[in-house]
Design a protein that fits this description.
The protein is an alpha/beta fold. It has 17 helices and 14 strands. The structure holds nicotinamide-adenine-dinucleotide (NAD).
Length: 440
């Protein structure tokens, strides 16, 4: 099939590349000229494990191309995917200007039937709005399909190639037939395609992300309580996770959810409910608790140093909002950096993939290290904000030789408590017992 993908971010580029991998001809469009040129030159603009092999193969085999020319892409395509940003607007509701703007531009270019697929995360009713934009600009028949994307950054290629499920919102038989054909290679193992109406499909995505954010937040509150009552969140996690109704996944406490999806989607769903005079109370609590959770690690540091970290120097491991990505949108590490620097401390950070993005954002507000051990030089303490695998089993002898103090604040519970006792560290993690005699 001939496919156009509008927007080549984390979702659009993975979608376009993975659709090319099953033999489709895919043309990807972006307004960012530098990004498009980079891709034309064979360079990936994002870090996503496994994407490079597919990207290079499909370019070489002539199935994947890039352009800034929307007209060129629209002309040939039978199916047009929109994978555009839906950031929070001023009031926190999803800003649909990218989607509706692109819909308007596309509507002026279509000369024959097309399926317009919305892959972005959007509020209920957006498919109708997109339809109305087309109706206002053209008599050509089109179908608007809601096809929310559930991929996770870091494992996005696997998630796209072998999705748990595909959700397709459409009431058009013609669009349903084309979408079934397109997705058939990805559900060969029997994973379902759920067809539903557009509104249910749109809400499915917000419901999924909000539910997951709620699960994380619930565990963060359990972890906070564990610290107060002297329980161990790892034990509690295992105790509840073995119940199939609860499940083992997404029960790890931390320093608040971040990323480009959960914060904005929880907020957008809450705002959408408000707009329909429904007070979605759980989501409001989730947002409030998450804001507080982001402060937990910095508060632990301040308490340890008796409220005064002026002149102290900290090593920070991890900047990306989660491992295996260079995405730093709403990353908890950014909050920690702000708090430490605001209180007069200096920071040297290391992240395997996200340092360039943070440099662009914060400039010389902090220093960056060549590797995780370099980051430790002169550090009064180490803070851990992202659970990259490379941090899980470090060379503790090397660390001890470099660090000024054997003090670690771990926002991701990477290390075994007994091991840290044996190594003689002050080790403060989330929802677990505080270790070492130097307790604060
Ligand atoms: N990132 C994720 O993990 C993820 C997962 C599922 C769903 N989503 C949703 O998918 C959507 C896209 O997210 P993303 O993370 O890929 O965004 P992104 O910011 O990484 O990418 C968006 C791209 O669209 C381009 N763009 C903006 N306006 C354009 C236009 N008029 N024409 C062509 N290109 C244009 C931008 O230059 C950018 O390259 C959002 O609604 C998001 O909520 C994201």
């Amino acid at each position: 099939m001939k496919i156009a993908v509008i927007g080549t971010g984390y979702v659009g580029l993975v979608t376009g590349t993975c659709l090319a991998e099953t033999g489709n001809n895919v043309i990807c469009v972006d307004i960012n000229e530098a990004k498009v040129q980079k891709m034309i030159d064979g360079e990936l603009p994002i870090y996503e494990p496994g994407l490079d092999v597919l990207f290079h193969r499909n370019i070489a085999q002539g199935r994947l191309s890039f352009t800034t020319d929307l007209a060129l892409a629209v002309k040939e395509a039978q199916i047009i995917f929109m994978a555009l940003p839906t950031p929070p607007g001023g009031d926190g509701a999803a800003d649909l200007s990218y989607i509706l703007g692109a819909a308007k531009d596309i509507s002026k270019l279509v000369t024959e039937y097309k399926v317009i697929v919305n892959k972005s995360t959007v509020p209920v009713g957006t498919a109708d709005k997109v339809h109305a934009v087309f109706a206002a600009n053209t008599d050509i028949e089109i179908d608007v399909v809601s096809n929310p994307e559930f991929l996770r950054e870091g494992v996005a290629v696997d998630d796209f190639m072998k999705p748990d499920r595909v959700v397709i919102g459409t009431t058009s038989d013609r669009a349903k037939k084309l979408m079934t054909e397109l997705y058939a290679p990805y559900v060969r193992q029997g994973n379902p395609i759920f067809f539903m109406d557009e509104k249910s499909s749109e809400l499915s995505k917000y419901a999924a992300n909000s539910f997951l954010a709620t699960k994380i937040t619930f565990m963060n509150e359990i972890a906070n309580l564990c610290e107060i009552v002297g329980a161990d969140v790892d034990a509690v996690r295992k105790g509840i996770g073995s119940d199939e109704r609860i499940g083992k996944r997404f029960l790890f406490p931390g320093i608040g959810y971040g990323g480009s999806c959960f914060p904005k989607d929880v907020q957008a769903l809450s705002k959408a409910a408000d707009a329909h005079d429904y007070d979605f109370q759980i989501l409001k609590s989730v947002m409030q608790v998450n804001e507080t959770q982001k402060t937990v690690l910095a508060k632990k540091v301040l308490k340890y140093f008796n409220g005064d970290i002026k002149g102290k120097h900290f090593a920070l491991w991890g900047l990306a909002f989660k491992p295996e990505t260079d995405d730093i949108r709403e990353a908890p590490a950014l909050y920690i950096i702000d708090e430490l620097v605001k209180n007069g401390a200096t920071v040297t950070a290391f992240d395997p993939e996200a340092m360039d993005n943070v440099k662009t954002l914060v400039g010389d507000k902090i220093s960056f290290a060549e590797d995780q051990y370099d980051a430790l030089a002169n550090a009064d303490a180490l803070l851990i904000a992202t659970e990259w695998s490379v941090f899980r089993n470090p060379d503790f002898d090397k660390m001890e030789a470099i660090m000024k103090n054997k003090v670690i604040f771990d926002g991701r519970n990477l290390f075994d408590l007994q091991k840290m006792i044996d190594l003689g560290y002050y080790y403060n993690s989330i929802g677990r017992k505080l270790l070492n005699s130097q307790t604060s």
